[in-house]
Amino acid sequence: MKSTPFTRKTILVLAGFFITTSLFSQKTEIQVLSAVVKDAVIPNAQVIFQKNGETSITATTDSQGKISIASPFGGVDDASVTIIIKKEGYSTLVTKGPCNKLVYAISPTMKTLDGLRVVLSWNGTPQDLDSHLSFEGNHIFFQQKTGTKANLDVDDTDGFGPETITVEKKEAGKKYVYAVHNFSEMSKIDNTSLSSISNAKVYVYIGNTLIKTYQVPTGSKKGNLWTVFMIDENGNFVDINTFNNSSSTLNTGLQLEAYLESNETFAQSAASMANIQESINVNSQGEAAYHQGDLEGSVTFYQRAIELDPNNDQAYSNLGLSFQKLNREAEAIWANRKAIALAHGADEKVVKASSHFNIAKIYEKKGQWQDALNHFTLAKSFNANTAYDNGIKRMKEKLRQN
Question: CA 103 to CA 65: how far, in whole Å?
């Protein structure tokens, strides 16, 4: 077991895993670590506790990355408490309680437009879960920690995680597939531990934002290999969530390669009619916040709308615009790509054209002329607009100059 301040009772988490603790405890103790440097503590992080109807409580981690304070809100550590952890240079973490005697791992802000970070945490049983990322010519995992602009930052073998894979720059037009393998029980066919007891969670960061959280499907799914998601050729995240058996790391690699070579489509979860309508309402609240100049507030509303209905293309398009106004360009590109993938109906071509245009403008701002040209050209392919023509002309001139 790795050394932590709470020894065997500690659950190392990115967004918080529950451990049993006395309801009568009057102290709340938390430690904050880096998600990318093994066991590196994070001092001077701001930890904020919030609960409806109560005044927020704030603490700051010490030189060991710890806080120890009188338990907020009457000393009852419950799921109604929201924990927010902030640190300059790191993505803000927002999660729910209980939180006492937990360790949280936060992710440094990524600087590249096409980078991403994937972090795995679990309950500690099975003891050894492994992260695997496969893309053309590459299989990143504990035996091959580096690849083409991607690497395994942290490998954990004694429970809880985190395991962290960072892609510095995704290659355009290439698929990426990510999976979690129950290495501890890889010889056991149709084993259900991964689904039934691991409580595994996968967190995906882009730029300064946690943009996706995957909870392992429960219900005793059979198999020791959970293939979580794919990023398609256009940079769009596609949920897979399938279980298979893998008796070796070689077999795991072969299975992931099969996903890369396949043209199979995966059905995405559909929201209930009630959630779809609520998503529309929350999206409208986001638009109101945006027009009032509350960009951060609009992001919160749009993210909530997407939680309610993952297929709300308008919410993704709006989210991309708010991110762009906030100079969070990597997140804006991701949101616009999702809007393109979901666009449908009478406005499909207009949405796709405008989203490609927005992406092109971000690449142009960063001096990535070829990427910008590609997206200006795609925008024009969906809708005629002089702005697209002018963008194409500017990028061709820039490329000739270079």
Answer: 10
